[in-house]
């Protein structure tokens, strides 16, 4: 401990100015990263969301204001598939520890361009359909209508739970050059913030 104090903390030590400068640079970088992350996390607005029980299933409906940037539209037209994911989780609060995650899931979308027909193909799981324009694809991806997520019996009746959901562009599924371009770029980081709903099954 004495060696640490004499070499770094004592006034007049040769490394003290360098350490202070390094600390300042790290703080500036962390601040810039935090500002960038905040800005990138709200590029898909959520207009409405509803979670309800229908018979034995818990279903979810939402309307996201998804709008592709010019860079994404150009990439799609050049044949680069775009992947979106609607991801959700169910937690319940614990006063003595962190909230416990009891259920998770996602729905994945793949949008690709078909040059022969000059149309787009939107795929979700084993289902796919042709769409005529980017605008139609935006509406289909952003509008969730009464989608069953899980069985009501999977949760304890009367227990209060928190449901969290978000929609985002999955840049990790894109080719490597585009992943590098996406780092810190608002054009390539479409994402909604996590939205939460409290409910009791």
Structure description:
The chain has five helices and nine strands; from the N terminus they run H-H-E-E-H-E-E-E-E-H-E-E-H-E. The strands form two sheets. It has a six-stranded antiparallel sheet with strand order 6-5-4-3-8-9. The model is unreliable at 1-41 (pLDDT under 50). With 201 residues, the chain is of the alpha+beta class.
Helix-strand blueprint:
Blueprint: H1 2-9, H2 16-40, E1 46-54, E2 57-64, H3 70-77, E3 82-92, E4 100-114, E5 119-124, E6 127-131, H4 134-142, E7 143-151, E8 161-169, H5 176-182, E9 195-199
Antiparallel strand pairs: 1-2, 2-7, 3-4, 3-8, 4-5, 5-6, 8-9
Low-confidence stretches: 1-41
Strand content: 35-45%
Give me the count of strands: 9
What structural category arises from helix and sheet content? alpha+beta
Succession of helices and strands: HHEEHEEEEHEEHE
Number of helices: 5
The share of residues in helices is: 25-40%
Q: Terminal Cα separation, in Å?
A: 56 Å
Quaternary: single chain
Q: What general outline do the C-alpha atoms trace?
A: elongated
The main sheet orders its strands as 6-5-4-3-8-9
Question: Could you describe the largest sheet, including whether it forms a barrel?
Answer: 6 strands, antiparallel
Task: Return the average pLDDT rounded to an integer.
Answer: 79
């Amino acid at each position: 401990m004495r060696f640490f104090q004499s070499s770094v903390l004592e006034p007049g030590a040769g490394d003290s100015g360098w350490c202070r400068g390094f600390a300042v640079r790290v703080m500036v970088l962390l601040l810039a990263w935090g500002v960038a992350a905040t800005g990138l996390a709200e590029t898909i607005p959520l207009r409405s969301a509803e979670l309800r029980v229908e018979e034995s299933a818990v279903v979810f409906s939402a309307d996201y204001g998804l709008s592709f940037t010019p860079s994404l539209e150009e990439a799609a037209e050049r044949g680069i598939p775009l992947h979106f994911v609607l991801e959700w989780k169910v937690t319940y609060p614990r006063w003595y520890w962190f909230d416990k995650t009891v259920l998770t899931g996602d729905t994945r979308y793949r949008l690709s361009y078909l040059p022969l027909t000059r149309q787009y193909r939107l795929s979700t799981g084993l289902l796919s359909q042709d769409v005529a324009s980017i605008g139609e694809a935006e509406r289909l991806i952003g509008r969730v209508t009464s989608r069953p997520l899980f069985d009501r019996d999977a949760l304890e009746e009367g227990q209060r739970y928190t449901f969290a959901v978000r929609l985002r562009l999955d840049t990790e599924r894109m080719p490597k050059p585009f992943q590098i371009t996406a780092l810190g770029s608002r054009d390539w980081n479409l994402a909604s913030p996590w939205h939460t709903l409290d409910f009791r099954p």
